[in-house]
C-alpha cells in the first residue's frame, strides 16, 4: 500500500482492523503519501471507514441471488416472466424441463399462449364474459386481464410441449409493476398436475372397472328403489338386458318364496341401519328361481338423507343346491331315498311335541324283515338291495299321508304313525304293513316270499324320549320274532317298568312298605255247581305313587332271596287276618287264602311267628285262613316242611298246594304234605279247550286229587266253557277272570251280593 501510495497510485484496500479489545471488523482503507515542498515524502495518511454494514448487505444479496437462482432452476415448477406485451422474458429450468423448450427458443420470441391449449383458454375467457381479441394470445389475455386487476386466481391449463404432447398444469398469474405502479410484465408460475390427474383418473377407471367386471352383481337405485344402473354380472345373474332393468323397481325379480313380512323387515332394517345383508330367492327372466346373497347399502348425502342404494348380489343357487345335496346325504338313506336315523330322530321329536299339544298318540313302529340275511346269502347283495327298495315302496304305500317312514340300515325300517286319536287306530296300519311285506316280490325273475316282524310302542303311553321309543319298539320287535315272526308285538310299558324297578334298589320296596303302599286285592273262589263262594285269595299289589298299581310279578322276584320278603310275607298274613276280622264285623264270613313262598315256609320259626299273628287277631278263627304253598318243587327238606305244616294245621290253619302240575311236583309231596286243597295251575286250564295234552293233565290232576282225597280247584277259569268242561271233568271249585278279577276288599261285599253262577253250570 505504501509503495503504491509513494508512487502516487491511489488505491482503496479492504483490511481487517483489530480493536484494542481484540475484536475485528472489516474496514475500507485509503492511503495517501504526505510530501513537503521538495516533494519528499514526509508521511502517509490512512483514512479507514468501518465496512461491517456493507459487508452484511453484500452477504444478504448473495443469499437472495442464490435463492433466486434456485427458484429459477427448480425442476418442480416452471416460472415464466413476460414483458407487458406477454412476450416471454424469463424461462426457468423447470419450464425448460416441463415444456421441452430451451430458454433461447422462447425468450423474446413467443407468448405463453403459444404453448398452451388455446381452445381451453378461450372457453375459459368466454365463461368469464370477457371481450377478447381473436388472436391466439386472447386466451392468455384472460389471465393477464385478471392479473392486471389484481384478481388472484388459479387456472387449470393444458400446456403443449415442444414435442406436441399435452400436460395439465395449475397456473397462477401475477402482474409485475414498476415503482410507478405501471405494469411492466407478468409472472406465471405453473405446476405439473399430470401425476395428480393420473391418480384421479386411475381411481375413476378402477371404480368403473370394479363396477363393470365385479364378480358380484351390482345395481344402483335411486332413493325410491328404482334401478338406475346395473353391471354385467347383474345382467348375467338375472338374464334381463340392461335396458329392461333400468327404471324398474326391485319387485321385478321377486319370487313368492319370501313373504311380504320379509320385505317389510328388510326395509325397516335398511332405514334404521343403512345396511341389510341376507339371502333371498328371486326369479330370472325365464322364470327360473335363483338364490342370492345380497348386501344393500344406503348411500347418504352430507345431511344424512338417503340418495341411493347400492345392491351387491351374488348367485348362490349352486352353493344352495350343493348344501341341499349335502343335507340330503346327511339325512337320507342312499339306497331307498328314505329318511335315515338322524332325520327320523328329528321328525320323531317334532311329532312328539305335536302329539302333546293335540293330546293325541303316536306309534313308533320298528319293522325288521324276517330272514333277510338268508336272501342276501342265497341271491347276492344286489337282489337284497332291490328287495329293500321294493319293500320300502310298498311300506310307504301302506302308510297314511302324514306318517314318516325311515330306514335305519340293513333290513330295519321305522315308521312313525302320528295323529292317532286312539291308540288302537294304528292296528289297521300295522296289518297293512305286514300284508305289504308278505306279498310275493319278484326281483330278476327270482320270486321272493318274505315277511316282517314288527314291534310297536305308543307315545305318550310309553313316556320315554325319542331314542328310547325306538329302542322299545326294537325290543318289542324281537318279541314278535320270538313269537314266530310275521306278526306285530306291542311294547309292554308295565313290563318295562318292572325291569326298571328291578334295577332300582330294594330300598325303594323298603320305603314302599314303610309308606304303606302295598295293598291286598282279593279274588273270589267259588263252587260253580252250588254257586257258593268258598273264599277269596289275597293277592298283593304295590300302589306306587307315580307308576300306579304294580303287579307282584314285577317286584316279588326282586326280593325273593332278601330278608324283606319275609317281612312282607308276615305283613300279608297280618293284613289278611285284619281283613277277616273287618268282614266278620259286618257278618261276612269269607275264608282268605294267602300265598306263602317256599322260602318263608322253611323259616325255622315259621310256626311260632304264625301263632303270634293269630294271637294278635284272636277274634278271627284260624280255620278261615288258608296258606297256598308256592314253588313246592323248591321245598328242600320234605321232613322239616311236613313237620312245619302239621304244626300249623294244629293251630287250625289249612293248606293248599298252588300251581300244581308245574315244576316237578312229585307224588311224594302230594302224599306227604298235609294240604287239603290242590290248585290246578292256570297254564293247563287256560289251554285245555284247545290242547288235548293240557286237558289230559287237568283230568290227571283231578283224578290224583280224588285218589289222595284232596279237594281240587281250577285256576284261570276265564270263560263259561272252561267252567262247563271242568264241571264235566268233576272239578266244581274254580277261580278266574270268568268269575271275578282280583278286586280291592271294599268291592267284595257288593260282588258277593250280585254274583250268580252261570246257568250253563247249573247241571
Ligand atoms: P297265583 O298264586 O297262582 O295267583 C293267581 C294269579 O293268577 C294272580 O295273578 C291272578 O290275578 C291271576 N289270575 C286269576 N285268574 C286268572 C285268569 O282267569 N286268567 C289269568 N290270565 N290270570 C288269572 P297275580 O295277582 O299277578 O299274582 C301272580 C303270582 O304272584 C301269584 O300266582 C303268586 O305266585 C304271586 N303272589 C301274588 N300275591 C302274593 C302274595 O301275597 N304273596 C306271595 N308270596 N306271592 C304272591
Ligand atoms: Mg295263589
Ligand atoms: Mg297259581
From TrEMBL:
Name of the protein: Uncharacterized protein
NCBIfam families assigned to the protein according to its UniProt record, in alphabetical order: GGDEF, sensory_box
Pfam families in the record: EAL, GGDEF, PAS, PAS_9
Coiled coil: none
Domain EAL: 502-756
Domain annotation PAS: ranges: 64-109, 203-248
Domain named GGDEF: residues: 360-493
Amino acid at each position: 500500500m505504501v509503495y503504491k501510495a509513494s508512487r502516487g497510485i491511489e488505491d482503496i484496500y479492504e483490511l481487517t482492523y483489530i480493536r484494542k479489545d481484540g475484536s475485528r471488523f472489516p474496514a475500507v482503507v485509503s492511503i495517501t503519501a504526505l510530501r513537503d515542498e521538495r516533494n519528499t515524502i514526509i508521511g502517509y495518511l490512512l483514512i479507514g471507514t468501518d465496512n461491517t454494514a456493507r459487508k452484511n448487505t453484500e452477504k444478504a444479496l448473495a443469499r437472495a441471488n442464490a435463492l433466486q437462482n434456485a427458484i429459477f432452476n427448480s425442476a418442480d415448477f416452471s416460472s415464466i416472466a413476460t414483458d407487458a406485451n406477454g412476450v416471454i422474458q424469463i424461462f426457468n429450468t423447470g419450464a425448460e424441463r416441463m415444456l421441452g423448450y430451451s430458454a433461447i427458443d422462447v425468450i423474446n420470441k413467443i407468448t405463453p399462449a403459444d404453448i398452451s391449449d388455446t381452445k381451453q383458454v378461450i372457453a375459459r375467457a368466454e365463461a368469464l364474459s370477457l371481450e377478447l381479441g381473436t388472436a391466439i394470445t386472447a386466451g392468455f389475455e384472460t389471465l393477464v386481464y385478471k392479473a392486471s386487476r389484481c384478481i388472484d386466481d388459479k387456472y387449470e391449463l393444458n400446456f403443449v410441449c415442444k414435442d406436441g404432447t399435452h400436460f395439465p398444469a395449475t397456473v397462477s398469474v401475477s402482474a409485475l409493476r414498476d415503482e410507478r405502479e405501471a405494469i411492466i410484465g407478468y409472472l406465471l408460475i405453473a405446476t405439473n398436475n399430470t401425476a395428480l390427474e393420473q391418480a384421479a383418473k386411475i381411481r375413476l377407471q378402477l371404480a368403473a372397472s370394479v363396477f363393470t367386471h365385479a364378480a358380484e352383481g351390482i345395481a344402483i337405485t335411486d332413493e325410491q328403489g328404482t334401478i338406475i344402473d346395473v353391471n354385467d354380472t347383474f345382467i348375467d345373474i338375472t338374464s334381463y338386458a340392461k335396458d329392461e332393468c333400468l327404471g324398474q323397481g326391485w319387485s321385478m325379480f321377486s319370487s313368492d318364496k319370501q313373504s311380504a313380512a320379509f320385505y317389510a323387515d328388510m326395509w325397516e332394517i335398511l332405514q334404521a341401519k343403512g345396511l341389510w345383508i341376507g339371502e333371498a330367492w328371486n326369479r330370472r327372466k325365464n322364470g327360473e328361481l335363483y338364490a342370492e346373497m345380497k348386501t344393500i347399502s344406503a348411500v347418504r348425502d352430507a345431511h344424512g338423507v338417503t340418495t341411493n342404494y347400492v345392491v351387491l348380489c351374488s348367485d348362490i343357487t349352486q352353493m344352495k343346491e350343493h348344501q341341499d345335496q349335502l343335507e340330503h346325504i346327511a339325512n337320507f338313506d342312499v339306497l331307498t331315498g328314505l329318511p335315515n336315523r338322524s332325520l327320523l330322530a328329528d321328525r320323531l321329536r317334532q311329532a312328539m311335541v305335536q302329539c302333546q299339544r293335540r293330546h293325541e298318540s303316536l306309534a313308533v313302529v320298528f319293522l325288521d324283515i324276517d330272514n333277510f340275511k338268508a336272501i342276501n346269502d342265497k341271491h347276492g347283495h344286489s337282489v337284497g338291495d332291490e328287495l329293500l327298495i321294493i319293500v320300502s315302496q310298498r311300506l310307504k304305500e301302506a302308510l297314511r299321508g302324514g306318517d314318516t317312514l325311515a330306514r335305519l340300515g340293513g333290513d330295519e325300517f321305522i315308521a312313525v304313525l302320528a295323529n292317532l286319536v286312539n291308540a288302537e287306530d294304528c292296528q289297521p296300519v300295522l296289518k297293512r304293513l305286514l300284508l305289504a311285506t308278505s306279498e310275493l316280490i319278484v326281483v330278476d325273475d327270482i320270486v321272493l316270499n318274505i315277511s316282517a316282524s314288527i314291534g310297536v310302542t305308543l307315545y305318550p303311553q310309553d313316556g320315554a324320549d325319542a331314542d328310547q321309543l325306538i329302542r322299545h319298539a326294537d325290543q318289542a320287535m324281537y318279541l314278535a320274532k320270538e313269537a314266530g315272526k310275521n306278526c306285530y308285538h306291542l311294547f309292554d310299558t308295565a313290563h318295562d317298568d318292572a325291569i326298571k324297578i328291578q334295577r332300582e334298589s330294594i330300598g325303594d320296596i323298603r320305603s314302599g312298605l314303610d309308606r304303606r303302599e302295598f295293598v291286598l286285592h282279593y279274588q273270589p273262589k267259588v263252587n260253580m255247581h252250588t254257586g257258593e263262594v268258598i273264599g277269596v285269595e289275597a293277592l298283593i299289589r304295590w300302589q306306587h305313587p307315580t307308576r300306579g298299581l304294580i303287579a307282584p310279578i314285577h317286584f316279588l322276584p326282586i326280593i325273593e332271596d332278601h330278608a324283606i320278603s319275609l317281612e312282607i310275607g308276615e305283613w300279608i298274613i297280618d293284613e289278611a287276618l285284619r281283613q277277616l276280622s273287618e268282614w266278620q264285623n259286618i257278618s261276612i264270613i269269607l275264608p282268605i287264602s294267602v300265598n306263602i313262598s317256599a322260602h318263608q315256609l322253611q323259616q325255622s320259626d315259621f310256626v311260632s311267628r304264625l301263632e303270634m299273628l293269630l294271637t294278635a287277631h284272636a277274634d278271627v278263627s284260624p280255620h278261615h285262613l288258608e296258606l297256598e304253598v308256592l314253588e313246592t318243587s323248591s321245598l328242600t327238606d320234605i321232613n322239616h316242611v311236613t313237620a312245619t305244616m302239621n304244626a300249623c294245621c294244629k293251630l287250625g290253619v289249612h293248606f293248599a298246594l298252588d300251581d300244581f302240575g308245574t315244576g316237578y311236583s312229585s307224588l311224594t309231596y302230594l302224599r306227604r304234605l298235609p294240604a287239603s286243597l290242590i290248585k290246578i295251575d292256570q297254564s293247563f286250564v287256560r289251554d285245555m279247550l284247545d290242547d288235548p295234552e293240557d286237558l289230559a293233565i287237568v283230568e290227571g290232576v283231578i283224578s290224583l286229587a280224588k285218589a289222595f282225597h284232596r279237594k281240587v280247584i281250577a285256576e284261570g277259569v276265564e270263560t263259561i266253557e272252561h267252567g262247563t268242561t271242568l264241571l264235566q271233568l268233576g272239578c266244581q271249585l274254580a277261580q278266574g277272570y270268568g268269575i271275578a278279577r282280583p278286586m280291592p276288599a271294599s268291592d267284595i261285599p257288593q260282588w258277593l251280593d250280585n254274583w250268580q253262577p252261570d246257568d250253563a253250570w247249573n247241571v
